[in-house]
Sequence to fold (192 residues):
Amino acid sequence: MESTTPKIDDTPRPKIDPRKRTYWYESLAWLIREAPGLLGEQSNMGAVISALTSGGPGQSVASSGGHDDFMDQRIEHVTRVRELSKAFDQLHRETQLVLLVYYEPRNQWPAGCASELGVELASVAIAFAEDRARLLDACSFSSKEENKGIIATAKEHAAKLIAEAHNSWTDVRRVHLPAKDRDDFRARVEAA
Fold:
């Protein structure tokens, strides 16, 4: 029987995200953004399981009903999460934090940050700023000459952190890919 586990597509693709990000790995985006919800870690699944085990109101017999199929569908994602988590755990803690901040979805930033730092750099620049309050003030009052230097330094630092984190991820994934996918991955990375 053929596996239903989704094929891992970890090819570096410049500017594929709708927000025009330079770095974007589908596997990282999936691991950080989607996997927790698919596995029930960030959802209402806890309440469903609780209701199933207690049998619901006024019942004493546990019933799983149609939820068995739902859980079976989630099992296929476990293998992918394990593989990606194994690789992710090999990264240095700061690199992990950079990737978590970079891929975590954000709808808004403090005033002026998205326009001055750019959508791609804003989260990482703010999270890893040496003086966060000063950077936020600089973004709010970006027309002041002294603030332009603060913003430029923060953008430079964030871009460097993001590039290093993605390079580390590429190196780790080359080692931790299943053997059958390793050559294909290397060819795609070198071609990109």
User: Anything to note?
Assistant: Confidence is low (pLDDT under 50) at residues 13-18, 57-61.
